[in-house]
Amino acid sequence: MPQTIVEKILARTAGRDEVRAGENLPCRPDYMIAYDFPGYTDVMFRQMHDDFGITKLAEPERYLVFIDHMLTRGDQREQDVHRVTREWCEFYGIRLHEADGIGHQVMVERGYAAPGNFLIHFDGHISGAGAFNALGWGVRRDLLEGWVKGELFLDIPATTRFELVGEFQPGVDSRDLVHEIIARLGADGCAHQVMEFGGPGARAMKIDHRQALCGMAMFTGAVSAIFEPDDTILERAGQVTEGELAPVWPDPDATYAAVHTIDLSQLRPRVVTPGSARAANTKLADELTGTAVTKAFIGSCASGRIEDIRAAASVLDGRTVAPGVTLNVVPTSKAVHDQAEREGLLDVLRAAGAQIAQSSCDFCFGYQKPLQPEDVCISTGVLNISGRMGSTDAGIYMGSAFTVAASAVSGHINTAAEVTRE
Amino acid sequence: MTGYPPPPDLIEGRVAWVFGDDFDVDLVIGVENIKTYDADELRAVTMKAYDESFVDRVRPGDVIVGGRNFGYGHPHYPPMVALRNLGIAAVLAESFSPGFWRGETYNGMPLLTVPGISQTVRLGDPVTVDWRTATVHIQRADGTQTLTGQAPSDRVQRIISAGGSFNLMLAEHAQEESR
């Protein structure tokens, strides 16, 4: 029977020749990942040890923990949280990556998100692994099932196929694409499914933009998203993966829940209004031009990679952040930070008045420099629910790095095309 | 919290509230309160934005009804803990947002996908719910109407019967140990 990419990956992890969407089967992920956070990892480790009596892991190499939250205050609580994580990881022999950047990026840099791999995490933005033809699935507390048993029951998801053609216009990127998809199909347009991307537009898309697109999959209702293998993926994955790559292509006559063709050259910048990413909140940026902002943020597991920093620098070069606006830029990882420094991009941003912060998750969830009640922020973060970045009275708009940088220069929501034309 | 107590085979109660599409469950208690698990604190804020009398009129066995994509957003656990504390025994909706569905299924809350439900029921309607078959009988003065949704998978039925995934795993683990 012909199969989709996801059916093939999950069939392998279920020890089967093939699986069908709708089946419920135990699957064995290649990596089972967490970031340390109070109430999550500390509880899970205690449950594994105290409730299930596990004192030794059969395959510790399949477990990964990242320290990427709570890194920027340096207080006692922070130190206690991380100390507990270090102790458990040492006890179980689990690899721990500490303060190298946001885990969803570091997993790529370290080769865990290799083509064909299956990764689970309690956090849904693990779906960004799909940019590398790996399946990342956020399973919330079911991560414990994986950690305890080495496998977990999953409903094999159906797939919606997106044939991408054309290329983004200047000042437009995949953040605009994901919100275009939500605007067209609704916030449940791909509910309980996986989004599969292919076609000439997919092959032309930069890998950073693919990561942002896949990392935001949950807002279409999808459980994950994945790209077809291509030369870009194989080359990038080849640089960081030991051993043979095992890319997974879909069969030509695989069964899809739906197939959509999207011409990337027709897309325009989009901005999401505060509250959630649902379709009704997804506007063309032009409709919101003039909305005043006080804070601008470029970073997160979805955006904040080298292409986002290049985008910001292209807008900010020779310009300055508007009076009354603070622009915070957080490169997604240390490696991204160092590359941006080498390319001179951070100098451009600093000269424009941007503040560059240590790579972490802390801005995006309101831990570092939280928004004040009167703030209006435009952000490349992953969430704009009330209270996400600080005060529940502050408003959070979301857009691409182009649009956030342009808005920071203008002091109100604006597009890169408008700012660079002036 | 390791899970909710398992429901009876037949859940008997009333429709305590009907929500619209893409409903963000954090709004049940308000986004200011999504970090607390304290029962009294939760009771004091539950559904206040919708109905002041909600916490006083809900009885164990009552259910809430949702539209499409119930649980959209970035769902936290306390709102459903607050509803479960009051006795809400199931959520019936046109469809569920996957993240919410997975998180609450783990906790053992019956989440039943029942197409047509949000347009059929009215606030206060008495309902009987066979959660294993997703069959909902709505009792009205002019007769009983029955809707049938998608039955939960065998695995999910076992999770709900065990009082959540954690308790099921513990029971399975104990069985393996004793072998």
Automatic annotation (TrEMBL), chain B:
The keyword Ligase does not apply. InterPro entries: Aconitase/3IPM_dehydase_swvl, LeuD. Keywords: Lyase. GO terms for molecular function: lyase activity. This is Alpha-IPM isomerase.
